[in-house]
Each structure stands twice: as C-alpha cells, then as structure tokens.
Amino acid sequence: MSTSNASSDPPALNNSTDTNGTGLVIVNYGKSLLIEDSNGKLIRCVPRRNLELIVCGDHVTWESAGDGTGVVTRIAVRETVLNRTDGENRVRPLAANLDQIAIVAASEPALDEFLVDKYTVAAELVGVQPLLIINKSDLLDNNTRESLEQRVADYADIGYRILFTSVLNTTGMPELEQALTGRTSILVGQSGVGKSSLIKRVLPGLEIAIGRLSAASGQGRHTTTTTTLYHLSCGGKLIDSPGVRDFRLGHASAVELESGFREFRNYLGQCRFHNCRHLAEPDCAVADAAQQNRIDPRRLESYRQLVAGLS
Ligand SMILES: Nc1nc2c(ncn2[C@@H]2O[C@H](COP(=O)(O)OP(=O)(O)OP(=O)(O)O)[C@@H](O)[C@H]2O)c(=O)[nH]1
Ligand SMILES: [Mg+2]
Ligand SMILES: [Zn+2]
C-alpha cells in the first residue's frame, strides 16, 4: 500500500526509481506533486509547463529528471472529473477518475442540506453515484437520531444510499468498507465531520492528522489541507479532501441543473412551457409535484437558489 500523509510536507521518497512511464497522481502540493509509478513507488514530480491543473486520481505520463524526481508531460483523458468554481469564478478540477462521491455530514457541525444538495447535483453531473454518510452517529440519542433520519429521508426517497457511521463505536463501518471496495471514491463535506477519521478507520495504522472541533464555535478546523489518494486494502481508492464551508458547482446551465436533481426527471417536459425553469411559471409540473410532496419542496428551493445564482 502506498500512501502519503495528509500534511503539506511531501514525505520522504524512495529514490531508487529512475525511469519513465505512467503514474497515478496521489497528491498535488501546488509546486510539486507525488505520483505513484506502475511499481507502486512514489516519485516527486513537477508538471511540464502549459499542462492544465493536475489533480488527485489523474493518470499521467512522466519522464525522469535524472535525480530521482520526474516531470509530468501528459495527463491522460479523464473518465470523470469533479469540478468546482473558485473564488475568482474559475472552474477548477478537484479530483479525477472518480466513480463515487461520498458526501460526509454529521450532527456536529450541523447538517447543511443545501451543501449536500450541491454535492448530489455535482455527482449527477459527473455521472457517478453519491453516497451520503452521516458520521458521528454515536453522538445521537433517540430523539436527535429520529429527527436527523427524517431530515435525510428525502435523499433515500430519491434513491441515494445513506449510511450512518461512527468512528468511535464502529457503527456502519463494515457497510462503508463494502461500499468503497473496488471503487475510486472521494470523501467531501464540511470541515470537522470526520472524513479523515473515517479514512483512518478503514486504513488502520495510517497517521492522518485529526483535528479537534473548536468547542467555542462548533466549527471544525481545516485540518486536511491537501486532497490525497489512499489505497484501500480491500481494493479501491479513497480520496480525502479538505473540508469546505461552501461548495460552488462547476459552471452548469439551468438545463444541467434541473437534470442534476434526479427526482425532477419524471416531471421534466410536462410543464406548460417547454423552456419552463420551474421558478414561478404557471402550470409547472415540477412545482406541482413539490406542492403535492412528490418532490421535496426543500430540494426545489435548492434548485431555485442555484438557478438564481446563474444570473
Ligand atoms: N464523536 C465522534 N467524533 C468523531 C467521529 N469522527 C470524527 N470525530 C471527531 O471529529 C473531529 C474532526 O474529525 P476529522 O476527521 O478531522 O474531520 P474532517 O472532516 O477530516 O475535517 P477537515 O479535514 O477539516 O475537513 C475530530 O475531533 C474527530 O475525533 C465520530 O464518529 N464520532
Ligand atoms: Mg480531514
Ligand atoms: Zn416547470
């Protein structure tokens, strides 16, 4: 198993590899990146100029620089890519060649459904399954558990899998491992929900920096600073990513957004206006479905908020 720690300092390298070839990107530190060659060795590389941003999960071609380090010369075509929009309105890739997006939430920090919605839309647009993980289930009593279950029930109705997990009492861990087996998954979500702790659980012995929630604010500290790929012993790859306050989808049109809400699909094409945006138009099949609770009105509100953000 080759991994690297989650701090921003590149780990010590095995310098015995000195060839060219293909590699898998384990982490991009900014100025340098670590790739894993076909023998599982880690090689520190720099990207050749003019390459687009290289991300975790990318398959690349590299050339030896002759000193144990390498130069990445090419990025293989990505099967999938998870994008976000950054503060300067640029669409940036976060990770590539994923086949599952595991959205991690918890009761602390409080569940942010709009954030979860944005990640489910991102997963739909990427074309991969979202898995919703409600971690820290050990913190729930009967009442809080019931209310949280109710809040996430609509995601189950849509068809998304929900796993309640606890790193402390290992609830849901066998199911989580099974869901991760044989796939490339990324853990995303707010800071402090326990993404790195979950990785540490499924990869015992791995030293991952685990932060403490600030007691005062109830906000998690940003303990994970780089997106990092780990190999699971059960087969499969798991990518840890830094926690977020917010997630802005990569650029998506209104039509893409409506198809990103899977449960709307039954109603699309049934509105009075063929170009209905499901905002305030008359005879809107999507709005009618929400009124009858066949669509969660809260999810329609999320969609409307995202469409409003387009203008
Ligand atoms: N009670 C309880 N605490 C947990 C659980 N999982 C994680 N924690 C605690 O939650 C805090 C944050 O955990 P991390 O794993 O660092 O969270 P993270 O999502 O990786 O945070 P970022 O790296 O900042 O995005 C730590 O103090 C963990 O010990 C759990 O299942 N139950
Ligand atoms: Mg973390
Ligand atoms: Zn409509």
Care to describe what's here?
It is a single chain. The longest helix is centred in the middle third of the chain and has 17 residues, at 142-158. The chain has helices at residues 113-126, 142-158, 173-180, 195-202, 254-260, 285-291, 297-308, and strands at 21-28, 33-37, 42-47, 59-64, 70-75, 81-85, 91-96, 100-106, 129-135, 161-164, 184-189, 228-231, 237-240. The protein is built from 7 helices and 13 strands. It is globular. The site of guanosine-5'-triphosphate has 25 residues, from helix 4.
Task: Put the structure in a nutshell.
The protein is an alpha/beta fold and 311 residues long. 23% of the residues lie in helices and 24% in strands.
Number of strands: 13
CATH class of the largest domain: Alpha Beta
For the biggest sheet, the summary is:
6 strands, mixed
Task: Give the strand order of the largest sheet, numbering strands 1, 2, ... along the chain.
Answer: 10-9-8-11-13-12
Order of helices and strands: EEEEEEEEHEHEHEHEEHHH
Taking the alpha carbons of the first and last residues, their distance comes to 47 Å
Shape: globular
**What structural category do the secondary elements indicate?**
alpha/beta
CATH topology call of the largest domain: Rossmann fold
CATH superfamily of the largest domain: P-loop containing nucleotide triphosphate hydrolases
Bound compounds, each kind once, are:
guanosine-5'-triphosphate, magnesium ion, zinc ion
